[in-house]
Amino acid sequence: MTGPQPRTSIQGIAPYIAGKASAPGVKHPIKLSANENVLGASPAAIAAYREAAAELHLYPDPNATALREALAAKHDLDPARIILGTGSDELFSMACIAYLEPGDTVVQPAHGFAAWAIAARAVGGIVKNASERGHTADVSAILDEVDARTRIVFIANPANPTGTWLPFSEIERLHAALPEHVLLVLDEAYIEFARDQLDTRAGLALAARAANVLTTRTFSKLHGLAALRIGWGYANAQIIEPLNRFRLPFNTPRPAQAGALAALGDEAFIEQSLALAESARGALSDMLRRYGLTPLLTATNFVTARAPTTLHAGELEARLAAEGVLVRHLKNYGMPDFLRFTIGTDAQMAALDRALGLATSRR
Ligand SMILES: Cc1ncc(COP(=O)(O)O)c(C=O)c1O
Q1: 179 with 298, same domain?
Q2: Is the CB of residue 231 below 6 angstroms from any atom belonging to ligand 1?
Q3: In this structure, are 287 and 254 located in the same domain?
Q4: Confidence of residue 23 (pLDDT cuts 50, 70, 90)
Q5: Residue with CA nearest ligand 1 atom 13
Q6: For residue 20, is pLDDT > 90?
């Protein structure tokens, strides 16, 4: 063999597959495939981003001080224990770099978010999938998979790609049963959308009091800043300190920090985004049922549903794309019969309704 060879752990990684952004022959598809904010970005964030364009020659604040302080003030946290990442994705990676030795194991629910396993495998971690119950994480099954070499447990509440959630008492039960040397990463990318189902402060409060919990959040969903790649985590100072040793100094760009800071204060946009998801969840689930799909319960800005028995999920995804609507077939999540639909605006939902009608009536 010639030339540089990547570590064997890297060779075994299947790259992340993003939601489709285009369809052949469709000029302006409706993108309901990546759980972005269908209302766009917070207008305040866009204005701040534009203003930051005048300072593109300057490095960002390596400590994102203003943003960490604003997050701390908003959520009643200690700013010193907040860490920013290039999306919350980077925080999963940082956690794995810091806390996994090659051969250590990571446990996640069977339909865990794909970026976790990539991060773990990249540093030689072994990923153990715990079975779920009705497409919902199962704490007992997760605990059964924890072994002597487990160093990290990942869980999202609510979860992607299923949209389902656990009562916080189950997260507490999981935490209480884990040895203290196991880091519990609680991924709250969608937590804001679950305010009717969950106490949205509980995950941060657990990270505040526990020695081994990293709770992560993102600006990509509620605030509509997916393009800026900015997320954050909260944990005990002893968890955060090693991460800051190797975190690249300028990991969050200056315009991203500025946009995120403005988004945090844009209560009108936040409320509008939450109201859309909350009011349209039921209607989208009903629509999917009308076309023979079986939706899972959701506490997020998307609905995941089993395809009709008469039509393969991959074929339905392709037919919807041909009608100009992009959704996500979940085959790479081990759910080959399922599709995931981001909740859209009224106009987008009407277009989906029409596309589903055409796609499911064709033979
Ligand atoms: C469960 C979950 N966690 C994390 C992320 C990543 O968010 P970010 O854009 O902050 O990297 C996503 C994005 O889809 C997600 O679904």
Answers
A1: no
A2: yes
A3: no
A4: confident
A5: 189
A6: no
| Residue with CA at minimum distance from ligand 1 atom 11 | 87
Look at residues 232, 264, 296 and tell me which one is the last residue of a structural domain: 264
Q: Which atom of ligand 1 is nearest to the CA of 229?
A: 9
Q: Is the CB of 273 under 6 A from ligand 1?
A: no
Q: What are the strands of the beta sheet with 150-156, ordered from one edge?
A: 82-85, 231-234, 213-218, 183-187, 150-156, 105-109, 126-130
* Among 316, 325, 317, 313, residue whose Cα is nearest residue 352: 325
**Domain boundary, last residue among 238, 264, 290:** 264
326 and 354 part of one domain:
yes
Taking the centre of ligand 1 as the mean of its atom positions, its distance from the CA of residue 220, in whole angstroms, is: 7
Closest CA to 149 of 119, 108, 105, 117: 105
- Please check whether residues 253 and 219 belong to one and the same domain: yes
Q: What pLDDT digit, counting tens, does each position of 76-108 carry?
A: 999 999 999 999 999 999 999 999 999 999 999
**pLDDT computed for residue 21 by the predictor:** 84
Mean residue pLDDT across the chain:
96
Tell me: do 293 and 168 sit in the same domain. Answer: no
| Closest residue by CA, ligand 1 atom 2 | 189
Cα of 73 from ligand 1 centre, angstroms: 23
Q: Is residue 55 part of a domain?
A: yes
- In three-state secondary structure terms, 26 is strand
Whether ligand 1 lies within 6 angstroms of the CB of 170 is answered as no
Token pair for 67 = 């943003």
Whether this model's pTM surpasses 0.85: yes
Q: Which residue among 160, 165, 223, 301 has the greatest number of ligand 1 atoms within 8 angstroms of its CB, and so is best to mutate?
A: 160
CA of 226 to the centre of ligand 1 (A): 9
DSSP symbol at 253? -
Co-location of 234 and 161 in the same domain = yes
Count the domains in the chain.
2
Do 85 and 190 lie in one domain? The reply is yes
- Asked whether residue 126 is domain-assigned, the answer is yes
Q: In testing the pocket of ligand 1, which one of 221, 225, 228 has its CB within 8 Å of the most ligand atoms? A: 221
Of 3-7, 157-161, 253-257, the range with the lowest mean pLDDT is: 3-7
Report in angstroms the alpha-carbon separations of 4 from 7, 119, 211: 10, 21, 40
274 and 184 housed in the same domain: no
Tell me if 220 CB under 6 Å of ligand 1. Answer: yes
Residues near 193 by Cβ (< 8 Å), separated by ≥ 6?
Answer: 158, 221, 222, 274, 277, 278, 299, 300, 301
